[in-house]
Amino acid sequence: MSSVLPQWILRIIWTQWFHMQAEHYPNTSAQWLYHHRDFSKHDIIFEFRDCFGKVELVRCNAQEFLTSPWAAPGPQGGTMACFVQSETETNIDLLDEPWILGSNFFWAAMLRLDATHRGDRPIPGQSTPYIQFAPQRIVRNGQKVAGPWDLELHAHLPPRMQATLRGQPELLV
User: What share of the chain is helix, strand, coil (3-state, %, to 5)?
Assistant: First the structure.
């Protein structure tokens, strides 16, 4: 599932991130865009607020959020960006309305979903459900210090699995 975002946010992504003309913004709900842009040196910072008003910031790589991890089919190459816009045009003041972050957010930031439930019932003695975010970048004084692979999140896995996860088939031999 793709992320469902307000139209005004998608228009900003369309024009300011992808440098597309505003008049070429598609009128359909799904926004597919083939592109060759490199966002790997850019971050997106999400601000999550819980029901008590506590704010948590989650930083992720813009490349992994704005584009698919797979190459686009066909001779033009590049990658694809896919978002779904909300059905109605919303005002910028309606930031409290919930929006859906889809698989592109999962690729960019999530590490683990611990449901601790069987069906709709909690398992007795277990903690409440939670989502653990993967550290994406350590930034100090505005400079990237480390990324997810530098942090060795998978150091406990056997070398063969590490090579597969890192996309390094030459290590599988």
Answer: 20, 30, 50
> Considering the domain boundaries, does residue 122 fall inside one?
no
What predicted TM-score, i.e. pTM, was given to this entire model? 0.60
Q: 133 near 139, Cβ under 8 Å? A: no
Q: Please tell me the predicted confidence (pLDDT) of residue 58.
A: 83
Say which residue the tokens 């946010």 belong to. 9
Beta bridge partners of 43: 61
From the CB of residue 121, how many other CB atoms can be counted at a distance below 10 Å? 7
Report CA-CA distances (Å) from 159 to 31, 105, 130, 172: 38, 27, 29, 8
25 & 108 share domain = yes
Please choose, from the candidates 42, 85, 49, the residue with its C-alpha nearest in 3D space to the C-alpha of residue 64.
Answer: 42
Q: What is the pLDDT of residues 93-110, one digit of tens each?
A: 455 566 778 777 777 776
The three-class DSSP label of residue 8 is: helix
Question: What is the Cα–Cα distance from 84 to 87, expressed in whole angstroms?
Answer: 9
Structural domain boundaries, residue 163: 137-173
